[in-house]
Write a structure and sequence with these properties.
With 60 residues, the protein is mainly α. It has one domain (6-59). It is 55% helix and 10% strand. The protein contains 3 helices and 2 strands, in the order H-E-H-E-H. It has helices spanning 2-6, 20-23, 36-59, and strands at 13-15, 33-35. It has a two-stranded parallel ribbon with strand order 1-2. The longest helix is centred in the last third of the chain and has 24 residues, at 36-59. It is elongated.
Length: 60
């Protein structure tokens, strides 16, 4: 897969399967890899922390 990516003009690769980040890592290529699991977990945590702050402020 990485050899195919090298011959195309690609800005980044979305690792859309939950296991792909286990077999393809950023050190294998200079093309940015977007790990959807990591992106989703970070978004969920950001939302949860913001909700927690809001809930705490409204409680006090």
């Amino acid at each position: 897969m990485l050899s195919l990516i090298k011959v195309k003009d690609i800005d980044g690769v979305i690792l859309g399967c939950t296991e792909l980040h286990l077999i393809i890592t950023q050190y294998m290529t200079t093309i940015p890899l977007l790990n959807t699991v990591e992106i989703q977990v970070e978004a969920i945590l950001d939302l949860a922390l913001k909700e927690g702050e809001h809930a705490l402020k409204s409680f006090i």
